Amino acid sequence: MPLPALYLKSNADKRLKRGHLWVYSNEVDTERSPLKQFEMGAQVEVFSKSDRSLGVATVNPNNLICGRLVSKESKYPLDKSLLVHRIKQAQALRDMAFPEPCYRLIYGDSDLLPGLVVDRFFDYLVVQISTAGMEAVKDDIVEALVQVLKPVGVLLKNDHAARELEDLPLYVENPYGDMPEAVELVENGTRFLAPVVDGQKTGWFYDHRINRALLQPMAKDKRVLDVFSYVGGWGVEMAQAGASEVICVDASAPALDWVGENAALNGVQGKVQTMHGKAIEVLKQLIDDKQRFDVVVMDPPAFIKRKKDQKKGEAAYRHINELAMRLLGRDGLLVAGSCSMHLGKETLVDIVRGAGRHLDRHVQVIHQGGQGADHPVHPAIPETDYLKAVFARTYLP
After folding, report:
1. Rounded mean pLDDT for each run of 10 residues along the chain, 397 residues in total
2. 78 CB-contact burial (10 Å; exposed 0-12 / middle 13-18 / buried 19+)
3. Residues annotated as part of the active site
4. For residue 146, what are the domain limits?
């Protein structure tokens, strides 16, 4: 049975022809295909103004992004068979790039599965669905993951804010196997427990993996401050790599409890301390106490979630990075991170430059990093290229 047709306006197919996957509501020819006729999460065949088939998309008529292409051919709708194929393709990339099965297995649009994220922790999988189209096939998603990976447990961690944009309910569900409160992973030779049930997002952030690996040899015998540490991804890895002392700062007391667990898991609990509090307040306290560090890692949450947050968000990045630089010794290393897609790489570099000039420090950018191979960038979708890490050596000239 053919899928319902969704027709685009004249020239609205140009972006899709370049490889993009999104259809905006103002691009739809609503006279030929009224959006209100489609059910939320339904699949449609997308046609250009000239009736050329562009592929299969899932739709949400209530959203600005009303369609997301999942297949270039109408004979391949989004079902278990296609999901199995896409999962195998994604797994091949990750297994080529990483020694252990601990990675982001599915990264949405970049793996041609828009609205789906899956993180793998050895034999456990944590799934996040953010679109109505993926929600409609969630049973197929679980079955496909089980068929390909044969996990011990699968968790649907669907309590995140992105679902509200699609009018989807929030829930956490264990549809297959048994899922403990925390699961183990290995990253860059360091063991961690990720609190997948009650932690942030999927319980862990794999995206900075290659940047953390680069910092490890630089942190040896150094005093390290890890701000916005969550469960200690940066800090515990640096302690494991030979840092002399690490202080992890976070506003979440439960997250800092996990820092202690992860430090103990690697036998470095004697080198890792924690400070509970809001980052700005803790940084000011450390400055007042005349504390100095060899390395400061500043890895905050996204300060610019929407374009309207740009000015305020950039000011926040400037403020925290200047405070961080004040805590560096005469010759120190700042790692300035950002997961805000709307903050350009050159803007983050300029923020670091400005902080150095304000404090009369010479700044040398020695590395500019991004996300790892398990967060591949779709070259036609700039939104998939979001992560920044600026390594800046600063010293008094």
Report:
1. 94 95 97 96 97 97 96 96 98 97 98 98 98 98 98 97 92 97 98 97 97 98 98 98 98 98 98 98 98 98 91 96 96 97 96 96 97 97 97 93
2. buried
3. 339
4. 80-179
